[in-house]
Amino acid sequence: xxxxxxxxxxxxxxxxxxxxxxxxxxDRIYDNNIVNVLLYANGNQLSxxxxxxxxxxxxxxxxxxxxxxxxxxxxxxxxxxxDWHTSALSPMDYISGYLEGDITNYHFSFNTLTPYIHYQLxxxxxxxxxxxxxxxxxxxxxxxxGDTTVLFxxxxxxxxPLVKIEAKVPYYPKKLAYFKIKQQVDFQCFTPDIxxxxxxxxxxxxxxxxxxxxxxxxxxxxxxxTPHSLQFNFANGIVFNSGNEPRxxxxxxxxxxxxxxxxxxxxxxxxxxxxxxxYPRANSQYETYQDNHGKMFITARSxxxxxTEGDYAIVYFYLKMPEFKNAGVYILGxxxxxxxxxxxxxxxxxxxxQYEGKLFLKQGYYEYWYAVLPFGSQQADxxxxxxxxxxxxxxxxxxxxxxxxxxxxxxxVGIQKIKAH
Length: 421
What we know:
Blueprint: H1 2-21, E1 28-29, E2 34-41, E3 50-52, E4 59-65, E5 73-80, H2 91-94, E6 95-97, E7 101-102, E8 105-108, E9 117-123, E10 128-130, E11 134-144, E12 147-159, E13 164-168, E14 182-184, E15 186-190, H3 199-202, E16 203-209, E17 217-220, E18 224-226, E19 229-231, E20 239-241, E21 247-250, E22 261-266, E23 271-275, E24 297-298, H4 306-309, E25 312-320, E26 327-332, E27 347-349, E28 354-362, E29 364-374, H5 383-386, E30 395-404, E31 409-419
Parallel strand pairs: 3-12, 23-25
Antiparallel strand pairs: 1-12, 2-4, 4-9, 5-7, 5-11, 6-10, 8-9, 11-12, 13-15, 14-20, 15-19, 16-17, 16-30, 18-19, 21-29, 22-23, 24-29, 25-28, 26-29, 27-28, 30-31
């Protein structure tokens, strides 16, 4: 028993060093064999990975491994600050039970061109569960002969809903120059007496648009405080580019070409799916339709089990427009983990005068935007390509944190999600 506990301590020391070496903990895949990583709450693929502290809420983790043999995959959780740095807590401060768990639920793919092994984990479990609220990273790794290799990390949230949040997107922003161009998020928080100590310093808020983190507002402190409420009245308001509804394509069936798919070719080990050429929408008329705000949904034909019978395709994207000289163009959405890296960066074809990109995706329904990321910047902008329309039905999520002085960590004491319209 003591030997096993000693191994745990070594593992977590290594994890802590790796995490602290990173600027920020994020959704990231480190192994090219790992694809289609999903984390969602209570069995709903479109739900955010949020659970209530001490409740029966459960997260579902699923992913596919393109390897041929099952591996000894393990997982653990890492507590983070409100801005996603690794917190100063010891794992024993925030984990109840064992410090790591095994992922033993797996199935081989059946009747697919692309062979893979599908893994699934329902979490938390009685033997490993978070005992504090806050931001968390779920870390999956392979532990073989004393060597630990991290496969991927995924963000999730544990909330103790102690603060009531009222929020809206007003028709008129504080700065009239933003009228019908940007969306302003107004909110206030109502707090119980237990949070009366130093509210101006201890409370901080993050505001997120859709699933993006690159343009989120972090570390917002109250501008004024009353006995039971916090006000956030900034001079120019909390504003985001309105953007546009996401583009989309339906790839749940390779037997026919749905809207926006130009051609499907069956290869030896996968499909090639060629989308119709896209064009900028910045100067087009706004069109409204129901969407999932940039999320994806893994599904297949009615006679298929998408988990083990869903097949993979290389999807080719084309964007016809002049080249940006001092910026890159990226495919943005849950299908790219909301990240900006070489996998979703497009290249410009000077002969055809268009951006071209490709992604390896499983059967399903996908939404995306084209984003422009200036060289050297961390924040992208979709408006040069997609336009910016006030009527866009964005979602905004408000995360309210309270810094606990005893253990020195950021408690997540409220979450509120609203639609712009």
